[in-house]
Predict the structure.
Amino acid sequence: MKTEIILKEGYPFIFTSGAFFVLSLLFYFNASIQVFLFAVFLFFLYFFRNPERIPEDESKYAIISPSDGEVVEIIEEKAPLTNESMIKISIKLSLFDVHVQRSPIEGEIVSKQYIHGLFLNISSDKASELNEQHRVLFKTNKACVVVNQIAGFITRRIVDFGLFGRVKLGERYGMIMFGSQVDLYVPKNTKIKVTEFQKVKSGETLLGFVNEN
C-alpha cells in the first residue's frame, strides 16, 4: 500500500490556508499579510508530513519509540488498561515534530480506551491524569505495552487510524494535533536503552528490549 507523503488529516488545514494565500494575491493584500499566509500554508505542509522510518532494531524483542519528541521522564508507575506497575517513558512533542504515532512492537492491538478530559498545558503535573487521551494496549506472546496519546492545550484532537488486531513494528496507528505528549508503558524488566532529555523518532529509535525470560 502506498504511503501518503502528506497525511489526509491535514488536507482541510492545507487547502484552507492555501486558499487564503491565493485570495491575498488576487485581491492585492498587504505584502506582510501575504507572507504570513504563505508561512502558515508552509507550516501545515510541514506539520502533516508523513515520512518513512526504518527501525534501528527489528528483532522480535525490540521496543521502538511510538512517537517523535524528547524523553522528559522515565519512572515506575501503574499503567492504564493493565493496572500493573510498569516503566513509563514520557515523550513530549513540540510543534515541529512529526505527530504520527506508530506501533512500538510487533504484535497485536487488543484494547483501546478514549478518555474525554481537559486540555491543560502539557507541562502541567496534572496533564497526564486529567487531559483528553487515547490509550492503546499492544500485546505479544512475551509482554504487553501501553501507549497513551495525551492532548495538550492547543491540540484538542487525537486521531485513531482504526487499526485493531495484528500490527507490524513501526506501523502507523494514529496521531495527535499540534503539540502533545505520548506516554509509553513497558514491563519493569525491560532493558531500557534511552535516557531522559534524549530526542527520539517514531518508528525508528530503539527504546529497549523486552526481557526474553
User: Anything to note?
Assistant: Residues 62-209 form a domain with the Glucose Permease (Domain IIA) fold (CATH 2.70.70). The radius of gyration is 18 Å. The chain has two domains: 8-47, 62-209. The chain has three helices and 14 strands.
